[in-house]
Protein backbone atom coordinates (compact mmCIF):
# COMPACT_ATOMS: atom_id res chain seq x y z
CA UNK A 1 0.00 0.00 0.00
CA UNK A 2 1.44 3.43 -0.92
CA UNK A 3 2.74 5.49 1.99
CA UNK A 4 0.54 8.41 1.00
CA UNK A 5 -2.58 6.27 1.32
CA UNK A 6 -1.41 4.88 4.67
CA UNK A 7 -0.82 8.41 5.88
CA UNK A 8 -4.30 9.43 4.75
CA UNK A 9 -5.89 6.51 6.59
CA UNK A 10 -3.97 7.25 9.79
CA UNK A 11 -4.86 10.95 9.66
CA UNK A 12 -8.53 10.09 9.05
CA UNK A 13 -8.50 7.68 12.00
CA UNK A 14 -6.96 10.25 14.31
CA UNK A 15 -9.46 12.85 13.15
CA UNK A 16 -12.34 10.45 13.86
CA UNK A 17 -11.05 9.78 17.37
CA UNK A 18 -10.64 13.47 18.06
CA UNK A 19 -14.14 14.18 16.73
CA UNK A 20 -15.60 11.38 18.88
CA UNK A 21 -13.82 12.68 21.95
CA UNK A 22 -15.08 16.19 21.26
CA UNK A 23 -18.65 14.96 20.77
CA UNK A 24 -18.53 13.02 24.04
CA UNK A 25 -17.06 16.03 25.81
CA UNK A 26 -19.87 18.26 24.54
CA UNK A 27 -22.46 15.59 25.40
CA UNK A 28 -21.05 15.20 28.89
CA UNK A 29 -21.06 18.94 29.54
CA UNK A 30 -24.59 19.31 28.22
CA UNK A 31 -25.91 16.35 30.22
CA UNK A 32 -24.23 17.33 33.48
CA UNK A 33 -25.42 20.94 33.07
CA UNK A 34 -29.01 19.82 32.51
CA UNK A 35 -28.87 17.39 35.43
CA UNK A 36 -27.63 20.16 37.70
CA UNK A 37 -30.48 22.44 36.58
CA UNK A 38 -33.08 19.74 37.24
CA UNK A 39 -31.62 18.91 40.65
CA UNK A 40 -31.56 22.56 41.69
CA UNK A 41 -35.13 23.11 40.45
CA UNK A 42 -36.43 20.28 42.65
CA UNK A 43 -34.36 21.40 45.62
CA UNK A 44 -35.65 24.95 45.38
CA UNK A 45 -39.20 23.61 45.55
CA UNK A 46 -38.38 21.74 48.75
CA UNK A 47 -37.89 18.20 47.45
CA UNK A 48 -35.71 15.74 49.34
CA UNK A 49 -33.05 14.11 47.15
CA UNK A 50 -30.83 11.14 47.92
CA UNK A 51 -27.79 11.37 45.66
CA UNK A 52 -25.67 8.68 44.04
CA UNK A 53 -23.04 8.34 41.32
CA UNK A 54 -23.96 6.96 37.93
CA UNK A 55 -21.50 5.66 35.33
CA UNK A 56 -22.12 6.49 31.68
CA UNK A 57 -20.81 3.83 29.34
CA UNK A 58 -20.02 3.44 25.66
CA UNK A 59 -19.61 -0.07 24.26
CA UNK A 60 -19.21 -1.37 27.83
CA UNK A 61 -16.54 1.16 28.79
CA UNK A 62 -17.13 3.79 31.46
CA UNK A 63 -16.69 7.14 29.73
CA UNK A 64 -17.59 9.43 32.63
CA UNK A 65 -19.54 9.53 35.90
CA UNK A 66 -22.02 12.04 37.27
CA UNK A 67 -23.84 12.65 40.55
CA UNK A 68 -27.61 12.25 40.19
CA UNK A 69 -30.52 11.67 42.55
CA UNK A 70 -31.45 8.03 43.02
CA UNK A 71 -34.50 9.03 45.06
CA UNK A 72 -36.70 12.14 44.90
CA UNK A 73 -39.42 12.79 47.46
CA UNK A 74 -41.50 15.74 46.27
CA UNK A 75 -44.85 14.87 47.81
CA UNK A 76 -47.29 17.76 48.37
CA UNK A 77 -44.98 20.23 46.64
CA UNK A 78 -45.65 22.56 43.69
CA UNK A 79 -44.42 20.13 41.05
CA UNK A 80 -45.92 20.43 37.57
CA UNK A 81 -45.88 18.58 34.27
CA UNK A 82 -43.12 20.92 33.10
CA UNK A 83 -40.88 19.75 35.93
CA UNK A 84 -41.53 16.17 34.84
CA UNK A 85 -40.64 17.00 31.24
CA UNK A 86 -37.19 18.12 32.37
CA UNK A 87 -36.48 14.98 34.34
CA UNK A 88 -35.36 12.83 31.40
CA UNK A 89 -31.66 13.51 32.01
CA UNK A 90 -31.86 11.53 35.27
CA UNK A 91 -32.93 8.30 33.55
CA UNK A 92 -29.73 6.37 34.28
CA UNK A 93 -29.86 6.99 38.02
CA UNK A 94 -33.32 7.77 39.38
CA UNK A 95 -34.90 4.73 41.06
CA UNK A 96 -37.59 6.17 43.34
CA UNK A 97 -39.95 9.08 42.67
CA UNK A 98 -42.72 10.29 44.98
CA UNK A 99 -45.02 12.92 43.46
CA UNK A 100 -48.08 12.25 45.62
CA UNK A 101 -50.22 15.33 46.21
CA UNK A 102 -48.64 17.33 43.40
CA UNK A 103 -50.27 19.00 40.40
CA UNK A 104 -49.00 16.60 37.75
CA UNK A 105 -51.35 15.10 35.16
CA UNK A 106 -51.21 12.33 32.58
CA UNK A 107 -48.81 14.44 30.48
CA UNK A 108 -46.32 14.54 33.32
CA UNK A 109 -46.53 10.78 33.79
CA UNK A 110 -45.77 10.26 30.11
CA UNK A 111 -42.51 12.15 30.61
CA UNK A 112 -41.69 10.20 33.76
CA UNK A 113 -42.08 6.92 31.92
CA UNK A 114 -38.99 7.74 29.88
CA UNK A 115 -37.01 6.82 33.00
CA UNK A 116 -36.08 3.21 32.25
CA UNK A 117 -34.42 2.63 35.62
CA UNK A 118 -37.42 3.72 37.71
CA UNK A 119 -38.46 1.13 40.32
CA UNK A 120 -40.78 3.03 42.70
CA UNK A 121 -43.43 5.56 41.65
CA UNK A 122 -46.05 7.20 43.90
CA UNK A 123 -48.80 9.35 42.39
CA UNK A 124 -51.40 9.22 45.16
CA UNK A 125 -53.74 12.20 45.28
CA UNK A 126 -52.82 13.56 41.85
CA UNK A 127 -55.02 14.34 38.83
CA UNK A 128 -53.92 11.32 36.81
CA UNK A 129 -56.41 9.10 34.97
CA UNK A 130 -56.44 5.83 33.03
CA UNK A 131 -54.18 7.48 30.44
CA UNK A 132 -51.39 7.63 33.02
CA UNK A 133 -51.83 3.93 33.76
CA UNK A 134 -51.48 3.23 30.05
CA UNK A 135 -48.12 5.01 30.02
CA UNK A 136 -47.01 3.17 33.17
CA UNK A 137 -47.82 -0.22 31.61
CA UNK A 138 -44.55 -0.04 29.71
CA UNK A 139 -42.43 0.23 32.89
CA UNK A 140 -41.47 -3.45 33.15
CA UNK A 141 -38.96 -2.83 35.94
CA UNK A 142 -41.41 -1.07 38.26
CA UNK A 143 -41.72 -2.84 41.63
CA UNK A 144 -43.86 -0.39 43.64
CA UNK A 145 -46.73 1.83 42.47
CA UNK A 146 -49.13 4.16 44.28
CA UNK A 147 -52.30 5.37 42.53
CA UNK A 148 -54.61 5.91 45.48
CA UNK A 149 -57.18 8.72 45.52
CA UNK A 150 -56.92 9.34 41.78
CA UNK A 151 -59.46 9.21 38.95
CA UNK A 152 -58.40 5.79 37.68
CA UNK A 153 -61.01 3.16 36.84
CA UNK A 154 -61.07 -0.58 36.20
CA UNK A 155 -59.43 0.13 32.83
CA UNK A 156 -56.27 1.15 34.68
CA UNK A 157 -56.13 -2.24 36.38
CA UNK A 158 -55.88 -3.87 32.95
CA UNK A 159 -52.82 -1.74 32.19
CA UNK A 160 -51.25 -2.33 35.61
CA UNK A 161 -51.90 -6.05 35.38
CA UNK A 162 -49.22 -6.49 32.71
CA UNK A 163 -46.37 -5.23 34.93
CA UNK A 164 -44.21 -8.33 35.51
CA UNK A 165 -42.08 -7.03 38.41
CA UNK A 166 -44.66 -5.14 40.48
CA UNK A 167 -44.69 -6.38 44.09
CA UNK A 168 -46.52 -3.58 45.93
CA UNK A 169 -49.62 -1.73 44.69
CA UNK A 170 -51.56 0.98 46.55
CA UNK A 171 -55.08 1.76 45.32
CA UNK A 172 -56.58 3.23 48.49
CA UNK A 173 -59.65 5.36 47.87
CA UNK A 174 -59.79 4.40 44.19
CA UNK A 175 -63.16 4.13 42.42
CA UNK A 176 -62.61 0.61 41.20
CA UNK A 177 -65.09 -2.26 41.15
CA UNK A 178 -64.94 -6.00 41.62
CA UNK A 179 -64.57 -6.81 37.93
CA UNK A 180 -61.33 -4.88 37.53
CA UNK A 181 -59.44 -6.86 40.16
CA UNK A 182 -59.37 -9.97 37.98
CA UNK A 183 -56.51 -8.34 36.04
CA UNK A 184 -54.44 -8.03 39.24
CA UNK A 185 -55.02 -11.66 40.23
CA UNK A 186 -52.90 -12.74 37.25
CA UNK A 187 -49.85 -10.71 38.26
CA UNK A 188 -46.93 -13.09 39.00
CA UNK A 189 -45.01 -10.90 41.46
CA UNK A 190 -47.69 -8.93 43.32
CA UNK A 191 -47.30 -9.47 47.08
CA UNK A 192 -48.91 -6.45 48.74
CA UNK A 193 -52.23 -4.92 47.70
CA UNK A 194 -53.76 -1.94 49.51
CA UNK A 195 -57.46 -1.36 48.75
CA UNK A 196 -58.46 0.52 51.90
CA UNK A 197 -61.26 3.00 51.37
CA UNK A 198 -61.79 1.91 47.78
CA UNK A 199 -65.09 0.97 46.14
CA UNK A 200 -64.44 -2.76 46.03
CA UNK A 201 -67.00 -5.27 47.25
CA UNK A 202 -67.43 -9.02 47.63
CA UNK A 203 -67.26 -9.50 43.86
CA UNK A 204 -63.82 -7.93 43.91
CA UNK A 205 -62.62 -10.25 46.64
CA UNK A 206 -63.80 -13.24 44.63
CA UNK A 207 -61.73 -11.96 41.73
CA UNK A 208 -58.54 -11.23 43.65
CA UNK A 209 -58.72 -14.52 45.55
CA UNK A 210 -57.37 -16.22 42.43
CA UNK A 211 -53.97 -14.67 43.11
CA UNK A 212 -51.25 -17.11 44.10
CA UNK A 213 -48.70 -14.46 45.10
CA UNK A 214 -50.45 -11.91 47.36
CA UNK A 215 -49.15 -12.05 50.94
CA UNK A 216 -50.70 -8.86 52.32
CA UNK A 217 -54.21 -7.53 51.63
CA UNK A 218 -55.67 -4.33 53.09
CA UNK A 219 -59.50 -4.20 52.95
CA UNK A 220 -59.97 -1.56 55.64
CA UNK A 221 -63.06 0.63 55.30
CA UNK A 222 -64.49 -1.16 52.26
CA UNK A 223 -67.86 -2.75 51.47
CA UNK A 224 -66.58 -6.28 52.02
CA UNK A 225 -68.93 -8.60 53.95
CA UNK A 226 -68.87 -12.19 55.21
CA UNK A 227 -69.44 -13.40 51.66
CA UNK A 228 -66.27 -11.73 50.46
CA UNK A 229 -64.23 -13.15 53.35
CA UNK A 230 -65.32 -16.65 52.35
CA UNK A 231 -63.12 -16.36 49.25
CA UNK A 232 -59.93 -15.50 51.16
CA UNK A 233 -59.30 -19.10 52.20
CA UNK A 234 -58.40 -19.83 48.57
CA UNK A 235 -55.34 -17.59 48.83
CA UNK A 236 -52.46 -19.94 49.62
CA UNK A 237 -49.87 -17.19 50.19
CA UNK A 238 -51.97 -14.74 52.23
CA UNK A 239 -50.27 -13.86 55.55
CA UNK A 240 -51.63 -10.44 56.53
CA UNK A 241 -55.22 -9.19 56.23
CA UNK A 242 -56.84 -5.97 57.43
CA UNK A 243 -60.65 -6.11 57.64
CA UNK A 244 -61.09 -3.09 59.92
CA UNK A 245 -64.31 -1.08 59.58
CA UNK A 246 -65.88 -3.52 57.11
CA UNK A 247 -69.24 -5.29 57.18
CA UNK A 248 -68.05 -8.66 58.39
CA UNK A 249 -69.53 -10.45 61.41
CA UNK A 250 -68.86 -13.44 63.62
CA UNK A 251 -70.19 -15.60 60.80
CA UNK A 252 -66.90 -15.00 58.97
CA UNK A 253 -64.75 -16.51 61.74
CA UNK A 254 -64.65 -20.01 60.26
CA UNK A 255 -63.52 -18.62 56.89
CA UNK A 256 -60.86 -16.45 58.50
CA UNK A 257 -59.57 -19.45 60.41
CA UNK A 258 -59.43 -21.42 57.17
CA UNK A 259 -56.91 -19.05 55.51
CA UNK A 260 -53.94 -21.46 55.20
CA UNK A 261 -50.97 -19.37 56.36
CA UNK A 262 -52.55 -16.31 57.99
CA UNK A 263 -50.17 -14.72 60.51
CA UNK A 264 -51.68 -11.27 61.20
CA UNK A 265 -55.33 -10.21 61.25
CA UNK A 266 -56.29 -6.59 61.90
CA UNK A 267 -59.88 -5.82 62.82
CA UNK A 268 -60.21 -2.34 64.30
CA UNK A 269 -63.67 -0.89 64.78
CA UNK A 270 -66.83 -1.92 66.61
CA UNK A 271 -67.53 -5.06 64.58
CA UNK A 272 -66.81 -7.40 67.50
CA UNK A 273 -67.13 -7.30 71.27
CA UNK A 274 -64.63 -8.70 73.79
CA UNK A 275 -66.09 -12.21 73.82
CA UNK A 276 -66.03 -12.41 70.02
CA UNK A 277 -62.41 -11.26 69.90
CA UNK A 278 -61.51 -13.93 72.45
CA UNK A 279 -63.26 -16.54 70.34
CA UNK A 280 -61.45 -15.35 67.22
CA UNK A 281 -58.06 -15.52 68.95
CA UNK A 282 -58.84 -19.04 70.11
CA UNK A 283 -59.72 -20.08 66.56
CA UNK A 284 -56.49 -18.51 65.26
CA UNK A 285 -53.80 -19.71 67.72
CA UNK A 286 -50.93 -19.09 65.28
CA UNK A 287 -52.15 -15.67 64.22
CA UNK A 288 -51.72 -12.24 65.82
CA UNK A 289 -55.15 -10.60 66.07
CA UNK A 290 -54.89 -6.82 66.33
CA UNK A 291 -58.03 -5.07 67.55
CA UNK A 292 -59.41 -1.98 69.25
CA UNK A 293 -62.44 -2.72 71.36
CA UNK A 294 -63.07 0.97 71.96
CA UNK A 295 -63.70 1.47 68.23
CA UNK A 296 -61.20 4.35 67.96
Structure in words:
This protein has 296 residues and is α/β, with parallel strands linked by helices. It has two domains: 1-166, Alpha-Beta Horseshoe (Leucine-rich repeat, LRR (right-handed beta-alpha superhelix)); 171-296, Ribonuclease Inhibitor (Leucine-rich repeat, LRR (right-handed beta-alpha superhelix), Alpha-Beta Horseshoe), CATH 3.80.10. It is 33% helix and 19% strand. It contains ten helices and eleven strands. It has helices at 3-44, 81-85, 106-112, 130-136, 154-160, 182-185, 202-208, 226-229, 253-257, 274-283, and strands spanning 48-58, 61-73, 96-98, 120-122, 144-146, 168-170, 192-194, 216-218, 240-242, 264-268, 288-292. It is elongated, with a radius of gyration of 26 Å. The N and C termini lie far apart (92 Å).
Summarize the structure.
The protein is an alpha/beta fold. The chain is 33% helix and 19% strand. The protein has two domains: 1-166, Leucine-rich repeat, LRR (right-handed beta-alpha superhelix), CATH 3.80.10; 171-296, Ribonuclease Inhibitor (Leucine-rich repeat, LRR (right-handed beta-alpha superhelix)).
Write the layout of secondary structure elements.
Layout: H1 3-44, E1 48-58, E2 61-73, H2 81-85, E3 96-98, H3 106-112, E4 120-122, H4 130-136, E5 144-146, H5 154-160, E6 168-170, H6 182-185, E7 192-194, H7 202-208, E8 216-218, H8 226-229, E9 240-242, H9 253-257, E10 264-268, H10 274-283, E11 288-292
Parallel strand pairs: 2-3, 3-4, 4-5, 5-6, 6-7, 7-8, 8-9, 9-10, 10-11
Antiparallel strand pairs: 1-2
Helix pairs in contact: 3-4, 4-5
Corresponding CATH architecture of the largest domain: Alpha-Beta Horseshoe
- CATH class group of the largest domain: Alpha Beta
Shape: elongated
Radius of gyration: 26 Å
Number of strands: 11
Order the strands across the largest sheet as they lie in space. Answer: 1-2-3-4-5-6-7-8-9-10-11
Assign the CATH topology of the largest domain. Answer: Leucine-rich repeat, LRR (right-handed beta-alpha superhelix)
Number of domains: 2
Q: Proportion of β residues?
A: 15-25%
Low-confidence stretches: none
Structural class: alpha/beta
- Mean pLDDT across every amino acid position: 86
Rounded to the nearest angstrom, the distance between the terminal CA atoms is 92 Å
The main sheet comes to: 11 strands, mixed
Order of helices and strands: HEEHEHEHEHEHEHEHEHEHE
Contiguous helical run count: 10
Helix content: 25-40%
Amino acid sequence: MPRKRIRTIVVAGIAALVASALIWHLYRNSLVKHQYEVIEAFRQKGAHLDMGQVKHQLFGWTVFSSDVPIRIDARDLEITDEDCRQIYSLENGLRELNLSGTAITDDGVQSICRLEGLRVLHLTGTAVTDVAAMHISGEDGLSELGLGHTAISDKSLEYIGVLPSLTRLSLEGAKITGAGLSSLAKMPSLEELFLDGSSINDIGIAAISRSTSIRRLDLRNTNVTDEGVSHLKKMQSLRRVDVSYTGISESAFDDLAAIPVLMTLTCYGDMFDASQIAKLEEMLPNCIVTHDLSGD
